[in-house]
Amino acid sequence: MIRATFEHDFSGFSLSGHAGYAEAGEDIVCAAVSAMTNLTVNGAEALGAAGEVSADSGEAYVSYRLRKPCAEAAKLLSAFYEELRQLQDQYPEFVRVQKNTK
Q1: Backbone angles phi, psi at 72, to 5 degrees
Q2: What integer is the mean pLDDT of 65-77?
Q3: What is the pLDDT of residue 82?
Q4: By the 8 A CB rule, do 83 and 36 touch?
Q5: Of the four, 2, 7, 35, 86, which is 20 to 30 A from 94 by CA?
Q6: C-alpha 60: how far from its chain's center?
C-alpha cells in the first residue's frame, strides 16, 4: 500500500510503500502516484518554491518539504492531496492518504 502524509498547511508531504495493484512495470496505481509526485515537485520548483527532496527508491520513500512558505506551491501540494484522495476512493486497498493536524 502507498501511504501519503501531508502537512496540515501543505508545506510538505511524504510517500512510502508500493501500491501492489499489479506486477512491477504494470502497476497503474503506482504509475499514477509517481507521475503526480513528479509533476507536483517539478511544478513547485517551477513556481519558485525552494524545496528539499528526500528519496530512497529501495525503500519506496519520497518526501518534499518547502524551505520557506510559498502560497502558490502550497496550492499545488493541496491539489496533489485532493488527487491522491480521489485515487484512494478508487483504489482504497492500495492508497491511503492523510493530513497531519498541526
Answers
A1: -65, -45
A2: 96
A3: 98
A4: yes
A5: 7
A6: 12
Separation CA 22–CA 8 (nearest Å): 31
Residue entry with cell 510517500:
15
| Residues paired with residue 69 on neighbouring β-strands, in sequence order | none
Residue pair 6/84 in contact by the 8 Å Cβ criterion = no
Contact call for residues 37 and 15 (beta carbons, < 8 A): yes
Q: Is the pTM of this model over 0.90?
A: yes
DSSP state of 62: E
CA-based torsion, 2, 43, 101, 57: positive or negative: positive
Q: Give which of 22, 66, 27 is closest to 47, Cα–Cα.
A: 66
Torsion of CA 94, 37, 34, 89, to 10 degrees: 30
Complete DSSP assignment for 15-37? EES---SSSTTT-HHHHHHHHHH
Report how far residue 20's alpha carbon sits from residue 29's, in angstroms, rounded to the nearest whole number. Answer: 8
